[in-house]
Amino acid sequence: MRNRSAITPVLRGVTLTAHRHEVICILGSSGSGKSTLLRCLNLLEVPNRGRMWALGERLKLREAVNGRGGAVLDRRQIQRVRASLGMVFQSFNLWPHRTILENVAEGPTHVLRQPRREAIGVAEQYLAQVGLADRRHHYPRHLSGGQQQRAGIARALAMEPAVLLFDEPTSALDPELTGEVLKVIRSLAEEGRTMLLVTHEIAFAREVSTRAAFMHDGKIEEEGPSQRLFLDPASERLRRFLQSHY
Amino acid sequence: MNGFAIQFLHGLSMTVLVAAVSGVLGTAVGLAGAASKLSAYRIPMWLAEIYTTVIRGVPELLVILLIYFGGTAAITFVIGRYVEISALSAGVIALTVVFGAYSTEIFRGAILSIPRGQWEAASSIGLKSWQIWLLVILPQMVRVALPAFCNLWISLLKDTALISVVGLTDIMRVAFVGAGSMRAPLTFYLAASALYLLLTSLSLLAFRMIEQHFVVPGQLR
Questions:
Q1: In chain A, helix, strand, coil percent, each to 5?
Q2: Total domains present in chain B
């Protein structure tokens, strides 16, 4: 898969496969293309070239030609795929004009078309799971960053996604708030959920992931089972990256 | 003078009718214009750009005259015999076109003020574009657009005075005729001013209430 921003290619020939129940974490320094990779997966950014499969479906994409970027050919398909890939954003992106209960219930109501009462039930259940049951009628602005991110996770979970995508979920948080969010992510990993996690929290990544990929300059420099990759990296660059982060 | 009270009432209802209809239609045009300007496709973007540039660049009075006489010419040409466009529809169309051009810019600014992440979060759960507009974008842009939109509405209310040039009997027309026939210009123009002031004050009050409805708890007002 290749992706090009206006100026320079961001991803250059990346191949990555995620199997069920895997927790894959994607490491790399800033600008290595790890967030772009994640955003390409649910087509918030459309790669210029390449092939993608999600849940056994080949995604219908148009390759870039003559200065026109790649594009989605079948919007219905992409909407269906997005609904089954839960995304958690670095900056939470909760809707400020809705309470967090409404934020979480929006997907079940309008995408999964569940009856209102059922959707509220689902939303309450997931807000309870991330420890926000008593805050459900609060607006995002009245919550701390950690609480907002946990609400963001609940919003993704309420869609019952097959895969969860985390795009640096703790990077916008104060250090004392990252713990509560990591705790939620860890419990999701223990449930056996399939997850892709872009993060700078190396110690955490090592602990929860089954597989890890290290990106550099738009390519996957090294990929493998976490146990091996973190203990005995083959690439010199990864070795240095890991050393500088401990 | 008493006979003119009835006349003024008719004029008032005509002013309100023209303003309300062109306000509603113009808002729809403005939303479409803003969406076109922000669209990824070039043709609607350019069309919207030409539309707002031309309309905002020409005096409103001229737009009204051009649509009144141009509209008559166009219909005559299409049908093949002389048909005059009614003053009412010419006035409504002209003010709709003007209102749409200015509100396009207001809505465009309001939409641009909504962070990209809001769209991304909405599309990431699989919402369709129209659902994103309805559930996420519109409720947030209303708050941003309201102050400028209220300004525009008030200026539309007063611009309706211009349609009297094509013969519509609005407040302004009644005042003009009365002032001439009763030889009491000050009285009639003061009465007309009071009526416009009444309409704009009521509008301000209504917008205050709408604004409060769209306040997001915890957000700066």
A1: 40, 20, 40
A2: 1
